[in-house]
Amino acid sequence: MKMIKQLAVMMLASLVLFSSCGSSEEKKTVNVQEEKVLVKIDTVKLQPVEQLYDFTATVEPEVKNNIASSTPGRIMEILTEVGKYVQKGQLLVKMDPTNLLQTQTQLANLEVDYNRALELHNAGGASKQTVDQLKVQLDNARTVYKNLSENVNLTSPISGIVTARNYDNGDLYSGAMPILTVMQIRPVKIKINVSEAYFSQIKVGMSVDVQSDVYEGEKFTGKVSLIYPTVDQGTRTFPVEITIPNNNEKIRPGMFARVVMNFGTQNHIVVPDLAIVKRAGSGDRFVYVYKDGKVSYNQVQLGRRLGDRYELLSGVENNSIVVISGQSRLSNGMEVAIEK
Question: Where does residue 307 fall: left (phi above 0), alpha (psi -120 to 50 degrees), or beta otherwise?
């Protein structure tokens, strides 16, 4: 009887232990399910995306001329001011003509001497050597006179606007700075550096959009006017000049400009901006891709921002499922649960 009671107690204990183990395993399974991070997902596909690329640069005049004399001298009169428009060939500055007048007198005397020697030579009274020497002196004097005359009355070689004046009437010009600066601002130009990857796609005459922060939301049309024939070995870029007609003269040299080039349309993956994860301490961008209950940490290369979405140049395949919520608690290879 005593043995039967002992057996009964042992069986009861085993049942209690088994029941307890079963309950623990069940709770453990439930806890594992509860520990999975809930995420929201979205399926991404290839879409046609315009290949627009931005380049920044500073606006430059089409032509810039520094008005200066080739020799030091006194400035007699400056005939224009900053902001004034001048025409090609217009007289801008008068310099002290003293040296010019002296050279003019010397030139006149040499012409008389040469003509007299030539007459004597023709009559047999002067040697050819004398005539030749006087001819050399006369030619030199004419060259000096021409140079001085060009540097006494300074004219504008272009039609444009005066953008700088560095002297006043009566100042002694030393050559340290130009007396005036004239710029042609119709048209203006912009020089940008383009990646060698687009060397074959850029053509002279290609239209581009130009924007300036000064005129927010306004676009100006420019055209590729010059493509430099070589690529910089250090930067792997090549210079391209953009010409803007600037008929209304709203764009001025020195302004910051943004050039937008359109290289056609290509099919690329487009993902919600919520899917993009930035790695702390770096500029790298990542996307969590969901597959078979787990997520993988894929590094991506971003293209253009398209409203609330991003173009991807690499990192995610077509028809992939990406995580758009809950990324802060995820790690590579983690099992997740989909939020309904």
Answer: left
CB count within 10 Å of CB 57 equals: 20
Residue 107 is which amino acid?
A: L
pLDDT at 22 over 80: no
CA 272 to chain centre: 29
Q: Which residues in 156-182 are b (16+ Cβ under 10 Å) and which e?
A: bebebbbbebbbeeeeebeeeebbbbb
3-state secondary structure of 11: helix
DSSP per-residue letters across 25-77:
HHHHHHHHHHHSEEEEEEE-EEEEEEEEEEEEEEEEEEEEEEE--SS-EEEEE
Confidence (pLDDT) at 63:
96
Helices (H), the chain: 2-35, 98-122, 128-152
Confidence at residue 5, expressed as pLDDT on a 0 to 100 scale: 52
Residue 43 pLDDT exceeds 90:
yes
Give per-residue pLDDT as tens, 72-103.
899 999 999 999 999 999 999 999 998 889 98
Q: Which of 107, 91, 110 is nearest to 99 (CA)?
A: 107
How far are the Cα atoms of 45, 76, 208 from residue 236, in angstroms, in the given order?
32, 51, 22
Cα dihedral: 266, 267, 272, 278 (round 10): -70
DSSP lists the bridge partners of residue 325 as 40
Beta bridge partners of 306: 309
pTM equals 0.68
307: tokens are: 């409203």
3-state secondary structure of 107: helix
